[in-house]
Design goal:
196 residues; alpha+beta; twelve-stranded mixed sheet; 3 helices; 12 strands; 18% helix
């Protein structure tokens, strides 16, 4: 029985290695449903996923780890100069430079807020990139347009981690969009006047 278990582990290791080497489909690592979900990476780094979000492993080697985020997550990454940590977020990639940051790609737009440290944000479409530092916010639109970094209030990006939502000078439509993504619901209102 011990030899059979060891053989199974070796076989699984070989299949897993070959799976990642052939560019196969991403592997689901964590998924949050109706509540916040935390995932811990092998090096102790962590991601907290907002409700209705998913994290996938796309590629892993000795020097590069690439993940795919669908939804929103707050990343607490331990910097390792021997490894590049990249998150594919749709129209752009975020490369960690040792930091705490929030990354969202709801609706195909990327929004990044850096709480501590720094990240590099690059548009896949036009290859433009910026380095964000603590307090910086930047976005990439669905067409690949990279905004200019600007300082922002952290509660706008991190409130969901405390089951709160921050709405300051927001349109009704953006409030509805925030509620819809957090609770995975669809909100309708009579007429268009109230939403705009």
């Amino acid at each position: 029985l011990l030899w059979a278990s060891l053989a199974a582990i070796v076989l699984i290791s070989i299949v897993t290695f070959n799976y990642f080497q052939t560019g196969s489909k991403p592997v689901l690592l964590a998924s949050s449903q109706t509540s916040v979900q935390e995932y811990t990476f092998s090096d102790g780094s962590r991601v907290t996923l907002r409700p209705h979000s998913q994290l996938f492993l796309e590629h892993q080697s000795k020097s590069v780890e690439m993940y795919k985020l669908v939804g929103e997550g707050f990343f607490n990454i331990i910097h390792n100069p021997q490894r590049t940590f990249i998150i594919d977020a749709g129209p752009g990639n975020v490369t960690d430079l040792g930091t705490l940051f929030d990354l969202s790609n709801w609706g195909g737009n990327i929004q990044v807020y850096v709480q501590k440290g720094s990240v590099a944000l690059q548009s896949k479409q036009n290859k433009k990139h910026v380095t964000l530092k603590a307090g910086d916010y930047c976005s990439i639109s669905t067409n690949g347009r990279l905004s200019q970094p600007e300082q922002r209030n952290p509660s706008k990006f991190l409130d969901w981690m405390n089951n709160e939502m921050f709405f300051d000078h927001k349109s009704v439509s953006s409030v509805f969009a925030e509620l819809e993504k957090n609770y995975n619901i669809k909100i309708t209102a009579p007429g268009n006047g109230i939403i705009n």
